[in-house]
Amino acid sequence: MGGHSSYQPKSAFAKWFHERLPIMDLIQGQALDFPTPKNLNYFWTFGGILTMMLGAQLLTGIVLAMHYTPHVTMAFDSIEHIRRDVNYGNIIQKLHANGASMFFLAVYIHIFRGMYYGSYKAPREILWMIGVIILLVMMATAFMGYVLPWGQMSFWGAKVITNLFSAIPFFGDSIVTWLWGGFAVDNPTLNRFYSLHYLLPFVLAGLVGLHIWALHVPGNNNPTGVSVKSGQDTVPFHPYYTMKDAFAIGVFLIVYCLFVFFAPDYMGHPVNYEMADPLKTPAHIVPEWYFLPFYAILRSIDNKLLGVIAMFASILLLLVLPWLDTSRVRSGTYRPVFKQFFWILVLDCLLLGYIGSRVPDNLFWVDTPSHEGGFALTNKLVGQIATLYYFVHFLIILPILGLLETPKPMPASISEAVLAKNKPALPGHKAAVPAE
Ligand code: HEM
Prior knowledge:
Layout: H1 12-20, H2 23-32, E1 35-37, H3 46-67, H4 75-84, H5 89-116, H6 125-147, H7 152-163, H8 172-180, H9 187-216, E2 234-236, H10 237-262, H11 292-300, H12 304-316, H13 321-324, H14 336-356, H15 379-404, H16 414-419
Antiparallel strand pairs: 1-2
Helix pairs in contact: 3-5, 3-9, 3-10, 4-5, 5-6, 5-10, 6-7, 6-9, 11-12, 11-14, 11-15, 14-15
Protoporphyrin IX containing FE binds next to helix 3, helix 5, helix 6 and helix 9.
């Protein structure tokens, strides 16, 4: 792991302790003195923001668990009890519910930052892959957490998503029965979801530990994508980045609090204020906003099994992204064509999100029921095109683009880029320098 520690035990006790457990040395070397590129922009604060959000979810979740009852007859009322009777219960419940959305908002920005600056490229492939596993665990945690209030959307969402496994040939139905713990989404399902929803955040914390370990071996990437070449390119993590991260966390907390205090239900669904009723299917079953793009991919294919495969493939694909992108240049800053495709991908994902929230057979622009027969631009058709584009981006555009694109001149080092900010690259560096 990079960076040596300047730790010197100051007292006799500190020396005694250090010889037995050099943890202060580890903290000094890995958190305080850690050499960090001096040109990181605010997009690099999202890792810190995410760590804070994981802590916030754990803390509020543990308090909620003290008052929540995981039983189908009591779960819904126990949430209402938390909101009304428990001291600060309303705020804690709102912090947790909105916290999930804020967590996903931050993780999507973090992922797209990595994609733009090529942070997944060598030597950070394992770091990136651990990130993708983190994303999957986050999704499972959020999905099971949403079932716990046992509202209408909790119940029907759980039913729709667990039922997807029935598309698996031969074993599908048995798998669904096994997941449910019975023949319907019922008390055993609620209990196991509660158990796993409590467990998985700790798994996440462990994965985040591995993620940061894998980050500290090669060190941070940076906006130029050029590797650190000398001591001049870095500054110690503390105080420079502790302060920058703290400021960004403060701003992020303001946005989070604006939701919690002024629009606590903005990202929720009103139907979930009704208790689960297995005999009453809601008119529209819609997942939380952060699942909508994947939901759109799922629904864009009529065959259930293929839809499920496409949905999982859209995430698992990211595991091999480091090998799909053939460019030798890391940062999108120096890749003029890639940059444009990157923004098209962002728009494509937003479009998928929008389509995921719509009725498939309605018309795209006006979102009213389409007439039978003839060609009609339905939400479903737009979803199909957007799904196709998503896969084309990763499987065709990225591999080919890396081979064909001529990158812009790159700075020889981070220091040069910082000193020559807003000036063209120095003469003699016209050719792209490969990102090692
Ligand atoms: C609980 C969720 C996560 C936490 C707490 C977390 C934490 C962090 C932290 C603290 C950093 C260093 C600071 C920074 O670059 O922002 C980092 C870097 C990184 N993370 Fe994550 N992360 C999470 C999820 C993810 C996911 C889902 C991915 C990708 C799919 C990912 C990919 C990366 C990459 C590639 C870097 C290196 C960035 C660079 O140096 O350019 N992370 N993460």
